[in-house]
From TrEMBL:
<dbReference type="InterPro" id="IPR050638">
    <property type="entry name" value="AA-Vitamin_Transporters"/>
</dbReference>
<feature type="transmembrane region" description="Helical">
    <location>
        <begin position="252"/>
        <end position="269"/>
    </location>
</feature>
<feature type="transmembrane region" description="Helical">
    <location>
        <begin position="69"/>
        <end position="86"/>
    </location>
</feature>
<feature type="domain" description="EamA">
    <location>
        <begin position="155"/>
        <end position="290"/>
    </location>
</feature>
<feature type="transmembrane region" description="Helical">
    <location>
        <begin position="275"/>
        <end position="291"/>
    </location>
</feature>
<feature type="transmembrane region" description="Helical">
    <location>
        <begin position="92"/>
        <end position="115"/>
    </location>
</feature>
<keyword id="KW-1003">Cell membrane</keyword>
<keyword id="KW-0812">Transmembrane</keyword>
<dbReference type="InterPro" id="IPR000620">
    <property type="entry name" value="EamA_dom"/>
</dbReference>
<dbReference type="InterPro" id="IPR037185">
    <property type="entry name" value="EmrE-like"/>
</dbReference>
<feature type="domain" description="EamA">
    <location>
        <begin position="10"/>
        <end position="142"/>
    </location>
</feature>
<feature type="transmembrane region" description="Helical">
    <location>
        <begin position="39"/>
        <end position="57"/>
    </location>
</feature>
<feature type="transmembrane region" description="Helical">
    <location>
        <begin position="190"/>
        <end position="209"/>
    </location>
</feature>
<dbReference type="Pfam" id="PF00892">
    <property type="entry name" value="EamA"/>
</dbReference>
<feature type="transmembrane region" description="Helical">
    <location>
        <begin position="127"/>
        <end position="145"/>
    </location>
</feature>
<keyword id="KW-0472">Membrane</keyword>
<protein>
    <recommendedName>
        <fullName>EamA domain-containing protein</fullName>
    </recommendedName>
</protein>
Amino acid sequence: MNTNIKSTSFGHIAAFFTIVIWGTTFIATKVLLRVLTPVEILFCRFFLGYLILWLVTPKGLRLDNRRQEFYFMAAGLLGVTLYFLLENFALTLTLAANVGVIIAIAPFFTALFDYFFLHGERPGPRFFIGFIVAITGICLISFRGDNTVQLNPAGDLLAITAAVVWAGYSTFTKKISSFGYGTILTTRRIFFYGLLFMVPALFIFGFHLDLSVFIEFKNLANILFLGFGASALCFVTWNLAVKLLGPVKTSVYIYMVPVITVVTSVIILHEHITLPAILGIGLTIAGLFLSESRLNFKRQKIVNEKEELRS
């Protein structure tokens, strides 16, 4: 029982740590967009992340069953290639605020996928109430100040697709975690397929990387942050959290991304925080706890019932 509590606690720490880093990546990306295209940034960060994971764990991964390869291919295609391409193109067609809100619905799709494809827990009322509360908070955060709600069908549809794709990625990583391999090794294999599926996009959207841009320390520091921190390290900690908590409990931490982004903007960019943003942060955090408490309550009930049967 104590071991389970420690594992669960570590899973929550890993998920929160990941979200804190991912919530600050917009600063590094914004700096690099001055000298690189979105596709160039995407390829560089994951290629660098892949190399770092090889340096950390240079041994190869030998699969017990060749059919398991399909899950790694699917995870790489969904979580690395498609998700980030869809998100980047969505940002060119619709408001960043729209994308931030729409991407945050990923936990909803994750819960459905987990229930239907992995035979996980059925999402209950508390989960959906928490989802609604969190999305309300995220809307207040995203559409604050001069931002206004503006529908852009093409971009918004791409953002919705990205949310569904991330839910699929979380589902496949949960299945991969059941194979019993190390998290670093599995993440590295997912990166490999993500980079492989990314190659056609490099030719389609143009890839003319000028390495001289990294002579400037600011550019080098930001690509290292994205490659080592946001990619190599955070995908390992996220996949570890999925392994320990499950895809649904881990995915609800996505609600926190806009919160981290606002806090970072205030601390680093000295942006002004508005009253709607403060209210939105409170609602988002409340929604996360509502969703999590529903799952914790149900899981604890199951544990208690098992202990009663044993006694």
